[in-house]
UniProtKB/TrEMBL annotation, chains A, B:
It holds the Pfam family Homoserine_dh. This is Homoserine dehydrogenase. It catalyses: L-homoserine + NADP(+) = L-aspartate 4-semialdehyde + NADPH + H(+); L-homoserine + NAD(+) = L-aspartate 4-semialdehyde + NADH + H(+). The keyword Flavoprotein does not apply. GO terms for molecular function: homoserine dehydrogenase activity. The active site is at K227 (proton donor). GO terms for biological process: methionine biosynthetic process; threonine biosynthetic process. Catalyzes the conversion of L-aspartate-beta-semialdehyde (L-Asa) to L-homoserine (L-Hse), the third step in the biosynthesis of threonine and methionine from aspartate. It comes from the Bacteria.
C-alpha cells in the first residue's frame, strides 16, 4: 500500500483537525482509500518545529491544549519553526500549508508553497493568499517539478466546488460563476432581515465563531474578492489581479433597504461573480445584490455558502455546503491528498503509455 | 487517440440530443477529452434499426423531423428495431440505453442492458427502471464481464449527483440523502403557493413541457420513489425494493395548506429521502414536507431539482441543477462515457501494477 508522509506547516485549527483525522481514522481511511498517512513534521509560529521521520506520535500533541503546545522539550523539537529547512530538507511527500492568509503579498505562505514545489513535494493548502495571488505560477512550478498543487479548501472549505468544476464538468463550457462565499456576511444579512442592526448582528456572528475578531475582511468583501479571483482564474482560465475585481461589502446597506426588499420577496446577498465575455476576457466583481426568490442563491441562508456554475449544456448547477469550520476545512486537505494520489497513479500510467509499455 | 463506437438504443429526445452533440461537437470534445465518438448503430421502436460499422452519417437523421424518421429505406436500415441482434452482434464499445422507463419490471430496458453487459459492452443509461430495480445485479454483471455500467442521468439528468457521491466524497461517511427530484411536482407546488389551483398548475406544467401527458407518476411521487431507490442503493449501499419505500404524492395537499404554510415562512416540497439507521439498515420514503426557510431544499424552486447529502465530516452538501431536459440528459450520457474512459484506462494501470509491470 502507498503511504504519504506529511509535513504540516502551521498547527492551528485546520492542520490540528487534519492530524486528528489521521490519528483517529488513519486505519479506516487507509482501508477505504488504498493509502496510509503519516505525519513526519509539524511547524508552528508559536509551538516551534517537531520532526520525526519515523512518524510523529500525535497522541500527546492532540491531548494538549492548543495554546500550550511547545515542541522545544520533545525529541526532534525546536522553539524555531525552521519552516524553510523543514519544507526543503525533511523527507516528506506532501507539504500541507495552513498558515494565515495574507491578502497583500501572500507571505509567508507563498514562500512555503514555492519551497515545497521546488523540492519536488506535492502541496495542498487551504490558504487563499498563494492561490489567489500566484495560483497559475505555482501550478506551472508544480508541473515543472512533476508534483501537484491542490487547494480545494481555499474556496468553501471542504465543499467540493473547485473539484466539481475540474473533474465533473468534462465536455461542458463554463460561462460564468457566482457565489455566496462568506458565512459571516451571509449570517449578518439574514439577521438584519430579521430586525437586528449591523453591529449587533456582527457581534452575534463573532459569538457563534463565524466572524474573526476583526470582521472587516468579511463585511467589506475582501475575503470574497480573493475567492472570486481563485474561481475566475481556476475555473474560467482568467488571469485577474485583485485590483481588477470591483469590491463592495455590506456595510453600506441599511436595515431599511434589507427589510424593504424582503417585503417584496427579494433577499440581499453578498455575491461574488465572474463572467466570461464574448471576446474571452473575464469580468469579476463582489457586490451586494437583492436576489429574487427563484434565484439559485436566494435560499442560501446563514453560514451556508454556495457557488453556481453557469454552463452551456447544463444551465446552472449549484453546489452548497459549509464555507468554513476546522473539520470541514481539514476534509478539504484530505480530499486534496486523495486527488494527489489519483493523479500520481494516473501519471504513472501515462508514462507507461507514452513509452509504449501498454 | 481512443475512439468509442456507440450503439444508441431508443432514438427519442435524449439519444437524438446525444447524436447532435457527437455531430456538432465531436471534434472539439475529442480535443478536450482525448477520445473520439462514433455512432455505429441506432434502434428505435418506430424508426426501426440502422447499422453502419464505419459510422452512421448523422446529418440526414438530425435534419429529419423526429416523427418522420424511417430507417427502412436507408443502407443498413430495417423496419425492425432488432434490439437483441444490434446489442449483441453489431461491434460497438458502449451501448447507450434511452428507451422508456417501465417502473413495474424495467423491461425491455433491463434486457437491453443485460444483453450488452453479457456481450462485454459498456452500458450507459438514463433509464431509471433497470437501475432502480436491478442496479446491484447489473453492476455485478458488468464487473464479471470487465465493463462499466453508468447511470448518472437516472437521477437529476446531467446534474452530477451520483458522481459527486462516488468520486468527490472519498473518506466521508454519507449518513443520509434527501432531495427534490421531480420538476413537475415542484413547479406545481410553487404555483399553488402563488394562488393557482392543482389542475391549472398541472396544465401549465404540461404546456411548459415539464409534465408528461399522464402526470400521475410526477404528482403521486412514483417517479421520485424510483430515484430514492437508486440513491439509497447506490449511495447508502442499501438493497431496497419499491415496496420498501413509503410513497405519498402531492395530490392530497390543499391550496389552503400550501398558502397557510407559506404565510408562516414554510414551503411545501415533495421530498424523497433515505437515512441510514444505527444498525446499518436504511429507511427511505417519499412524502410532502413543509420545510422551514433555512432548510437547504426550501429555496429550490420551479423545475430546478436538488439532492442533499448528509455526511459525518462535512455536514450537509447540496447539489442543485436541472432535473430534466433532453440536452441536459444527453450530457449525463456524455459524462458516463467520460467516466467509462477514465475507469477503463485506470483498470489498465491496475492490471499492470498487479502483474508487477509498474
Amino acid at each position: 500500500m502507498s503511504r504519504y508522509d506529511l509535513a504540516l506547516i502551521g498547527f492551528g485549527g485546520v492542520n490540528r483537525a487534519l492530524a486528528e483525522l489521521v490519528f483517529q481514522r488513519g486505519d479506516s481511511l487507509a482501508e477505504e482509500l488504498g493509502f496510509a498517512l503519516r505525519v513526519v513534521a509539524i511547524t508552528d509560529l508559536r509551538a516551534g518545529s517537531l520532526v520525526d521521520t519515523d512518524g510523529i506520535d500525535l497522541a500527546p500533541l492532540l491531548a494538549a491544549e492548543p495554546g500550550e503546545l511547545d515542541f522545544a522539550g520533545l525529541p526532534g523539537g525546536s522553539t524555531d519553526p525552521r519552516n524553510e529547512w523543514v519544507i526543503r530538507h525533511v523527507p516528506s511527500d506532501v507539504v500541507v500549508e495552513a498558515t494565515f492568509t495574507n491578502p497583500a503579498d501572500g507571505e509567508p505562505a507563498l514562500s512555503h508553497v514555492r519551497w515545497a514545489l521546488e523540492s519536488g513535494k506535492h502541496v495542498c493548502t487551504t490558504n487563499k493568499g498563494p492561490v489567489a495571488l500566484a495560483g497559475q505560477a505555482l501550478k506551472a512550478l508544480a508541473a515543472e517539478h512533476g508534483v501537484s498543487f491542490e487547494f480545494e479548501g481555499s474556496v468553501l472549505s471542504g465543499t467540493p466546488v473547485l473539484r466539481t468544476a475540474q473533474s465533473l464538468f468534462g465536455g461542458l463550457e463554463i460561462t460564468g460563476v457566482e457565489g455566496i462565499m462568506n458565512g459571516t456576511s451571509n449570517y449578518v444579512l439574514g439577521r438584519i432581515e430579521e430586525g437586528v442592526d449591523l453591529p449587533a448582528a456582527i457581534a452575534e456572528a463573532q459569538e457563534l465563531g463565524y466572524a474573526e475578531a476583526d470582521p472587516t475582511a468579511d463585511i467589506e468583501g475582501h475575503d470574497v474578492q480573493l475567492k472570486v479571483m481563485i474561481l475566475a482564474n481556476e475555473v474560467l482560465g482568467a488571469d485577474l489581479r485583485r485590483e481588477d475585481i470591483f469590491c463592495e461589502g455590506i456595510s453600506t446597506i441599511t436595515p431599511d433597504e434589507v427589510r424593504d426588499a424582503a417585503s417584496k420577496g427579494l433577499r440581499w446577498k453578498l455575491v461574488g461573480s465572474a463572467t466570461r465575455n464574448e471576446d474571452g476576457s473575464v469580468d469579476a466583481r463582489v457586490a451586494p445584490l437583492a436576489l429574487p426568490s427563484h434565484h439559485p442563491l436566494a435560499g442560501i441562508s446563514g453560514p451556508v455558502n454556495a457557488v453556481s456554475f453557469h454552463t452551456d449544456l447544463l444551465g446552472t448547477v449549484t453546489v452548497s455546503g459549509p464555507g468554513a469550520g476546522r473539520i470541514e476545512t481539514a476534509y478539504a486537505l484530505l480530499s486534496d491528498i486523495i486527488a494527489i494520489h489519483q493523479r500520481h497513479t494516473s501519471a504513472t500510467r501515462r508514462v507507461l503509455q507514452e513509452t509504449h509499455l501498454v
